[in-house]
Amino acid sequence: MNSRTKLNLQRLLAALLLGGLLSLLGCSSQPAYDGDDSSDNGYITPRPIDPGSIADAVPRVEPRSRYGNPDTYRVFGQTYRVMADGRGFVERGMASWYGPKFHGKRTSSGEPYDMYQMTAAHKHLPLPSYVRVTNLDNGRTAIVRVNDRGPFHSKRIIDLSYSAAVKLDVVRSGTARVEIRAIDPRRPNSIPATPAAPILASGTPAGANGGDIYLQAGAFASEVNAQLLHQRLEDGLKPQVTVQTSPDPARPLYRVRLGPLDSVETAIQLAGQLDQMGVSGARVIVD
User: Fold this and answer.
1) Residue 239: which domain range?
2) Are 227 and 195 spatial neighbours (Cβ–Cβ below 8 Å)?
3) 135 burial via Cβ count (<10 Å: 0-12, 13-18, 19+)
4) Alpha carbon 50 to chain centroid distance?
5) Which pairing describes strands 156-160 and 119-121: parallel, antiparallel, or unpaired?
6) Residue 33 included in any domain
7) What pLDDT tens digit does each residue of the chain (287 aa) get?
């Protein structure tokens, strides 16, 4: 090997080493994606958004998605049931958010995920659905369109898009305790505007236990009809069945509820049993 060939090889080796070093430095200087759930480890930082400029999703009547609405589905060995109807659904628990790693990828409804839209993922609600999300730590609210499945984490109930997380101030913390209330798009203004619980001096949110979980099988103006359903369900199901009366004597309402139950998943499985018994429209309630 002559001296010129050796010199060329030395230059090539130096260039390769320099390129590798620059590459390593470039990777280490990338800001880490500090977000949502443990499955999202992207490295692209979303563009900043002014929370005051983010508009809520506008509820509208839509057909059920052709995708993402099987009766049941399995993820990580766990079976999940899709609700036939989300009206009246109320739930409290932890929210997370998902962003850059999934941006542009297909959601369970078949639509591409856009982290700048006001959307969310839920394990059980029909796709699409609309829900009002209240951050119980700061009182902020947002209306989102549920078009995806998840989060498949035992302690989280909803995955927010980046924009929704910004509006609710969840981005920095990654998670927050929230309440979600389903919106009937045929009557979008009928949802109760329940105020969020403030942070107590101890740092624990008021109502931190999240309330008891019930499956409401029906609500009646007639006590007789409520008692008839009560008897029917008590004979055919194991959970405790009760008839709860509204506190307003001028407009009594008799609610037939099963529970308290150990989880929302249990309530939704019971809703499937009620469907088989011919009792449709059951609602999951956290009270």
Assistant:
1) 213-286
2) no
3) buried
4) 23
5) antiparallel
6) no
7) 555 555 455 555 554 444 433 333 333 222 223 334 433 444 567 889 999 999 999 999 999 999 899 988 999 888 888 888 888 888 888 999 998 899 999 999 999 999 999 999 999 999 999 999 999 989 999 999 999 999 998 788 999 999 999 999 999 999 999 999 999 998 877 654 443 333 222 223 323 344 678 888 888 888 888 898 998 888 877 778 999 887 777 778 888 999 888 887 788 888 888 877 878 778 888 77
Nearest Cα to 176, choosing from 152, 159, 192?
159
CATH code, 260 = 3.30.70.1070
Residue 287 CA to residue 284 CA, distance in Å, equals 10
Counting beta carbons within 10 angstroms of the beta carbon of residue 103, is it exposed (0 to 12), middle (13 to 18) or buried (19 or more)? Answer: middle
Q: How many domains does the chain have?
A: 2
Report the predicted TM-score, pTM, of the whole model to 2 decimal places.
0.63
In a shared domain, residues 128 and 176: yes
**Do 97 and 153 sit in the same domain of this protein?**
yes
User: Which tokens in the block code for residue 241?
Assistant: 């069945």
